[in-house]
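Thread: Modeling a multi-component assembly for a lab meeting

Hi all, long-time lurker, first post. My supervisor asked me to bring a structural picture of a complex we are working on to next week's group meeting, and I have zero experience with this. I have the sequence lines for every component (1779 residues in total). Could someone generate the structure of the whole assembly? Inputs are pasted exactly as I received them:
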Amino acid sequence: MKLIIAIIKPFKLEEAKEALSQLGIQGMTVTEVKGFGRQKGHTEIYRGSEYTVDFLPKIKLEIVLPDDRVEATTAAIVRTAKTGKIGDGKVFIFHVEEAVRIRTEERGAQAV
Amino acid sequence: MKLIIAIIKPFKLEEAKEALSQLGIQGMTVTEVKGFGRQKGHTEIYRGSEYTVDFLPKIKLEIVLPDDRVEATTAAIVRTAKTGKIGDGKVFIFHVEEAVRIRTEERGAQAV
Amino acid sequence: MKLIIAIIKPFKLEEAKEALSQLGIQGMTVTEVKGFGRQKGHTEIYRGSEYTVDFLPKIKLEIVLPDDRVEATTAAIVRTAKTGKIGDGKVFIFHVEEAVRIRTEERGAQAV
Amino acid sequence: MRKILVLGCLLVAFGWLPVRLHAAVPPPAKMPQPTLDQRLADIEAYINNVPRATDGRAVSRIAGPGPAHNGWMMTCSALVLFMTLPGLALFYGGLVRRKNVLSVLAQCLGIAGVVTIFWWLCGYSLTFSHGSGLLGNLDFAFFSGVDAAPNADYSPWISQNVFCMYQLMFAIITPALIVGAIAERMRYPAVLLFVVLWMLVIYFPVAHMVWGVDGVLNGLENDHARIRALDFAGGIVVHMTSGWSALALCLLVGRRLGHGREQMPPHSMVLCMVGTGMLWVGWYGFNAGSALAADTIAANAFVATTLAAAVGCSTWGLMEYCTRGRLSVLGLCSGAVAGLATITPASGFVTPNAAVLIGLLAGVLPFLACNLLKARFGYDDALDTFGVHAVGGTLGVILTGLLASPKANANLAAARIQPLIGHTLWLHQLAAAAIVLVLSVVGTVLLAHLVHAILRGLRVSEEVETLGLDLAEHGEEGYIE
Amino acid sequence: MRKILVLGCLLVAFGWLPVRLHAAVPPPAKMPQPTLDQRLADIEAYINNVPRATDGRAVSRIAGPGPAHNGWMMTCSALVLFMTLPGLALFYGGLVRRKNVLSVLAQCLGIAGVVTIFWWLCGYSLTFSHGSGLLGNLDFAFFSGVDAAPNADYSPWISQNVFCMYQLMFAIITPALIVGAIAERMRYPAVLLFVVLWMLVIYFPVAHMVWGVDGVLNGLENDHARIRALDFAGGIVVHMTSGWSALALCLLVGRRLGHGREQMPPHSMVLCMVGTGMLWVGWYGFNAGSALAADTIAANAFVATTLAAAVGCSTWGLMEYCTRGRLSVLGLCSGAVAGLATITPASGFVTPNAAVLIGLLAGVLPFLACNLLKARFGYDDALDTFGVHAVGGTLGVILTGLLASPKANANLAAARIQPLIGHTLWLHQLAAAAIVLVLSVVGTVLLAHLVHAILRGLRVSEEVETLGLDLAEHGEEGYIE
Amino acid sequence: MRKILVLGCLLVAFGWLPVRLHAAVPPPAKMPQPTLDQRLADIEAYINNVPRATDGRAVSRIAGPGPAHNGWMMTCSALVLFMTLPGLALFYGGLVRRKNVLSVLAQCLGIAGVVTIFWWLCGYSLTFSHGSGLLGNLDFAFFSGVDAAPNADYSPWISQNVFCMYQLMFAIITPALIVGAIAERMRYPAVLLFVVLWMLVIYFPVAHMVWGVDGVLNGLENDHARIRALDFAGGIVVHMTSGWSALALCLLVGRRLGHGREQMPPHSMVLCMVGTGMLWVGWYGFNAGSALAADTIAANAFVATTLAAAVGCSTWGLMEYCTRGRLSVLGLCSGAVAGLATITPASGFVTPNAAVLIGLLAGVLPFLACNLLKARFGYDDALDTFGVHAVGGTLGVILTGLLASPKANANLAAARIQPLIGHTLWLHQLAAAAIVLVLSVVGTVLLAHLVHAILRGLRVSEEVETLGLDLAEHGEEGYIE
Ligand SMILES: Nc1ncnc2c1ncn2[C@@H]1O[C@H](COP(=O)(O)OP(=O)(O)O)[C@@H](O)[C@H]1O
Ligand SMILES: Nc1ncnc2c1ncn2[C@@H]1O[C@H](COP(=O)(O)OP(=O)(O)O)[C@@H](O)[C@H]1O
Ligand SMILES: Nc1ncnc2c1ncn2[C@@H]1O[C@H](COP(=O)(O)OP(=O)(O)O)[C@@H](O)[C@H]1O
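Re: Modeling a multi-component assembly
Sure thing. I ran the full set together rather than chain by chain. Output:
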């Protein structure tokens, strides 16, 4: 099993979710995060004090899935999340040693 | 060392934390996340526009711990977080290459 | 490639970010989390009901980077995030199997 | 359930049809034109807020309301509504958990809606028309005959319909106070049905007994009152009825899931404090407005209200500081509200120095009730309606008996009440308080069972309670990131 | 763009210089001192809010404003401003997405600023000075001659400058209502420029026609009105103009990115409800204040307003409950506002029972407009300005025609309007409504094109819309964790 | 520390005991009954807000307060309290960081509490009783003799206790303004102790000097004033004292940890804007209420206040737009508040056109102070109390000297002040301003050192400052997810 972590732009979440659903992905976990990268933040001014906000709002998707679905899933995320502009985000892939579904105590690929 | 990531229902957090404390787990990190899975979200209506909220609030626990405590810990989480209803969540296990305690710069199992 | 996950105190974020920028780290992802550890929380009282807040606000940094930069980066985080007081946090290191930049579809070390 | 509602809806929809025609007023006995002196005296009466010199003697050239008093009372009516919408809604809304904030707001809005409708249907009439000493009749149903002319029973210089609106705002906030005790777990339809019945069975009768010109407990205006109680702005009528009913209801509804085990801190002390500020400001309409004129009694009530609120606020803070080494915003807010609730029945009857004393006690006793009593007995009065309003209100009613003084209010020099002042007045107060306490508790128990039977349950399911009432009962979330 | 502004800035800066001197008032014809009887009658006139007995007959000893009426109207002016700042700002601000909340607040504040300036420059004069039946002249420009003495055209007992301020508050909230339809996508400078032009081309003329003493649609006060329409507190002038313009503008500006596809729930129903409470409370200033005195008509309007709001609130809730099995805070808030908007033109002209009926219909028709009409036609009236204000306002204007009654307002017994009551008044109402509807829609279309041409676009870029207007247009965030 | 408090608590608790009995009023010299003409003239005097015709000549039949003026002043008192609770609390609370929001609210509530208590103990007396030109005596301590009868020194037609309450609300908001400069770092007990001392040493004396009928700086009412200054609603008394003290105190307390390095944006511009709206609305009570009657001067002040607020708001926005290409909600809010602070001393003395000019300057000078001065000198006036209130207030005081006109206020035609108008009045204003400025700064420095000595430190520890004052000092969090 693998874990895919994808950092994407917030307004692309719906689109990505739909694409993943169509691929038969049954579960994922979503976190609101702040990203720091090549894409530059904006400047805010409050009564004469200037602030640069380096961190931009991003969405982190975490999806655990069997090895054979990794490629298709990655491709789907990249396809839907791409705008071609800087800041589109990243996909990272990790090895998962074990998975358990709490409700049924199933393990491994069954669990995801 | 391993990293346990558990996705559980928010109102089970207290119970899980207690159980883990009793097992001697000294530290963990908790994140509010949104989950998408078999459990279906609810529908909201705002003046005629209907919205389906697919994402449900969940809690993510991250615990790094020595290999030999993984089983007991997983079991404790499963036990306390289980309601038997759909949406109870998952436990995933990863391999950790290194850990450092920032305060003391200790490394490895000492650090967690 | 490796993934560094660092849990630090919130008010150390700016300092850590600067240090990492100087090391040439181009990207990272930041999440607000709650930490449970040796550092104890505080007590709040609301009209006679006492609450202990065990979870303390922490910041989680996630940085994916080539293997050869791991040491320097870890050192920089430890240096800047250390106050010497309990609760300074941890650094954990994981193996990353693959990385993709969504915008360009570059893969591997190029992507980070 | 829904069918019943559709039916009810139709009933209400057509309820306005068979409206009583305005009762034909008997033609006034032919009266002479006023003399210059009488005309002048009428105007002076307006300025001094006393009955017209022409009353029964001549036709008044200024028979309608007096603009200063009317304007002030419209302002006060708006202020009292402001106390509920959004004042109390925020005060309570801030104190619940995030997932239930909208349920509190929906209860406040819903109560404002149905109470207004019942006030129009029959409530005003049952409360303020002549009837028995226990309840009015239906003469004013559908606001029949309630127009801009003054009703001399209550005030010579304000329009009866303004008086009616002013009293409506009290009728709205009183049941809304109860919401605090059963927050986060009672079903929305059950809340509204309970409130409607509670108004009919408890509020309208009690308000009539205490404030109705022929009420059995109206010591100030009714020569034939059995018990000569004083309640300037609602210590008995508002705070005791709601506070004691709240205790009974929260015992019947039961504790919140996880109460005593889980942490349930206020999700937004900021909202709570905003609500407190609005309550304080609006309370000037409540207390000073209860003079029913912009007169000297209103001025005195304004002072007493301010002092009690500020002293209550400081005292509660000090109690916290002395017992725990630090003082909380919730403490300051609670103290201010306790001060305001406690001074309410006394505000138009006591001197400033007495108000300071009342504020002081209001910072101590409700503090102890919320901190010790609740912990001791373990009832789940979620937002301390009992601790603040019942304890504060009852305390204020008794203190009124001890501290009322004709120096503060010349009406207390009237023969029907003067002999009691500084003497046995407090016993009358105690008796009235006891009667209303018993009525509130017993009535609430009966009504809660009735509502339980009709709607099959007062309380949401465990699942709903866990998920939060906002999503489950209203399909909405308070905040979306 | 910026250069234009610098220029404009200078113009405004020096605009106050060439101020017209107060027009030398013609010396009054030498008049006798008042008799005792006249002096008394003057005071009685003040209390009854009727013209002075001395008018044209003797020098009045109380020639200035009457304090009760003036005080009440200052209170009402503050209440109406409170409706916009922060009432409407919160009501709308809560309904948008988190990333656009400040843009709504900035629009409300900005409108308050520029409308006030234009009111001073020429707006008050164009609206309330004598002129043609369509528009006033510039006699009162720069508030020239607008001082604390009453302007007998509008009210014998309130200062003209208080009247001017009171009307200003209406002039502020009207364009602010439009903001609801084009929220989350229109450029800030375009909003302000549109509002300024809209005031000049639509609001000032319509307000003059309906409320100006010589206005062609002023059925109540103008013997020569072509169409004898009634609009007590702004069903035509406020809700119809803004509501219909809002529809036109939101069609021209286009739908929000992702509309119909993405979810755009209110980011804070809590703020929205707080705003609703403030609107309701402030609306007493709006409706009861429209009597321009603390008199019996104000008292009647107060009652009608309360009943319609509460019934509208309950009805909308009931509609939701019956159709969906649960009722939302947004529904209760919408119903209250719909009730208030619908009763507005009728509030001073109808009896309480008629107000209940109006509230009932206000809970039904706007409900259907927001739920069915919008879904059917797919226009993106983001916060339902059209559904609530245009539909409610138009409904109220027509119902006023059907339900107005001299029982509620003695002025309707005047010869110029009495024959129409209960007869063809509703046709006059319909005609006035139609004229204003067409004027609003056509005017808005033209002005929107003009603004588009001047500023090269009404709408923010896609990038800005995605990022949120707060950060992009104002460099701020509504909330920071 | 706590022991001191327990002691203080007891002292306060029993402070009410040794209350002075109401000083036996000397029996009035036997006076004749009024003639018809005198009775009429009394009523006319009430309507015109001038002294009674019977004063010293006959017994008045309307010797008490006049209801219109009294009602209006109670409304104004509530409005001015609303400015602090919750207006200013929200305005400031929104501007701090999330972790310190409750500390600001606690300070506002705490100040409301202790200032009220000290006002009752001695503050009102020290300010408004006769005494020397510098300070009153203790005749009115414990509100002795302060009842519903008017105090002719200040207003013939409002109750002295209403006047007393109205002035209390000013006494509450003034020190609360200081909180803005030392937000996020000063210890809670230090704030309260400082405020109490500051009231005694600075506020009560300055208010007496400027507004006391025998005050040395009271140009309007005191024939023997050394410096004939004008301050209608508190440019000197409120804004200059608080603003300049704020500057001194924030220098002494020092900058926030991380100031100039870390980002400290407002955690909720939404709250800040809500507070601004409430301030604006409440300010009508502040400025128009300062006429102490619902008279023509109040009407004029209402107009001036509106214009200056709107023009200040727009000008600040325009300055931002011209310098940075976009305008912020904080800018619009700051401009409105600056406009209001600047017009305060002038509001009852200037014409509408002068108010527009004042608003314009208020949008420019405080803008520069906040944007350039602060950056230049690097003091940490956290929420710009100095930049807005001291700069705006001082500017307004001087402009009053230049622009005051008997056209706007007939009282300026009085012999004691008329010769200065349009002549050397501005020098008197400058002198008064300078004296108060020096007094405020010097007094603050001394008191801050005193408080530092008593409580061993003004400032929280670094740890507390990092964690946030809400948790550390009050054991609460502003918001819980
Ligand atoms: N090395 C990294 N480790 C973790 N997260 C990263 C890393 N680099 C980028 N990110 C995340 O990806 C987001 C997009 O990266 P950025 O450099 O702005 O644009 P792009 O992906 O188009 O090159 C960042 O905001 C950050 O959240
Ligand atoms: N493949 C997955 N990868 C990551 N998180 C998942 C995955 N599947 C489920 N989850 C998380 O677990 C939660 C529960 O899953 P769900 O399918 O609803 O119920 P159950 O675990 O009982 O089958 C989801 O809300 C989501 O947060
Ligand atoms: N075993 C662990 N797994 C995951 N996170 C941990 C673990 N131990 C500690 N943490 C995180 O590190 C933070 C600091 O740990 P703590 O024990 O309080 O202090 P220290 O790191 O100084 O020993 C915790 O708040 C928690 O977020």
